[in-house]
Specification:
Layout: H1 4-11, E1 14-17, E2 25-28, H2 30-34, H3 36-54, E3 60-64, H4 68-79, E4 82-88, E5 96-103, E6 106-113, E7 122-130, H5 134-145, E8 149-159, H6 164-167, E9 173-179
Parallel strand pairs: 3-4, 3-7, 7-8, 8-9
Antiparallel strand pairs: 1-2, 4-6, 5-6
């Protein structure tokens, strides 16, 4: 972690053992959101990665409900792009397309407005954390339904032991911080 910005971001993540259930080590981004320098560093680092990887080829950032909405707008602004929202079922007005995914305790659905993207538009999906990968995979599937091209998925934190990146298949994935 040579970059001082990355060190600042890493210091802003705190851990809570046995939350929300015993055996889980929760990674809390609240201190990062509270500190403008840390938050700015996280956006700057994600934007730098996307500029280096994709140049000017990104059309939109897609923010995932709900904490992807914390990073998506700032990242989109930093890159001079618009933001599209991928929300939980029933939260978007107008015609939508949806996709469901399995959770430990049941099923959930994500939606995007049918007119959010045109076929062929290039999109990067952002969320705060990648765990098992189910939500991110479903977001990719939604964008494919709209015939958009998912260039990459990015997050602040990745929990590597849960192997969520594997669920993304061929879609590239980048995270600033990785934890077991």
């Amino acid at each position: 972690m040579a970059d001082s910005r990355l060190q600042l971001v890493a210091r802003s993540i705190r851990s809570f053992p046995d939350f929300p259930v015993p055996g889980v080590l929760f990674r809390d981004i609240s201190p990062l959101l509270k500190d403008p320098d840390s938050f700015r560093a996280s956006i700057s680092l994600l934007a730098s990665h996307l500029r280096e990887t994709h140049g000017g080829k990104i059309d939109y950032i897609a923010g995932l409900d709900s904490r992807g909405f914390l990073f998506g707008p700032s990242l989109a602004q930093e890159l001079g792009l618009g933001l599209v929202l991928i929300r939980k079922r029933g939260k978007l007005p107008g015609p939508t397309v949806s996709a469901s995914y399995t959770l430990e305790y049941g099923k959930a659905e994500l939606e995007i407005q049918k007119d959010a993207l045109e076929p062929g538009q290039k999109v990067v999906i952002v969320d705060d954390l990648l765990a098992t990968g189910g939500t991110m995979r479903t977001a990719c599937d939604l964008l494919v339904q709209l015939r958009a091209e998912v260039l990459e998925c990015v997050s602040l934190v990745e929990l590597t032991s849960l192997k969520g990146r594997e669920k993304l298949g061929a879609v590239p994935f980048f995270s600033l911080l990785q934890y077991e």
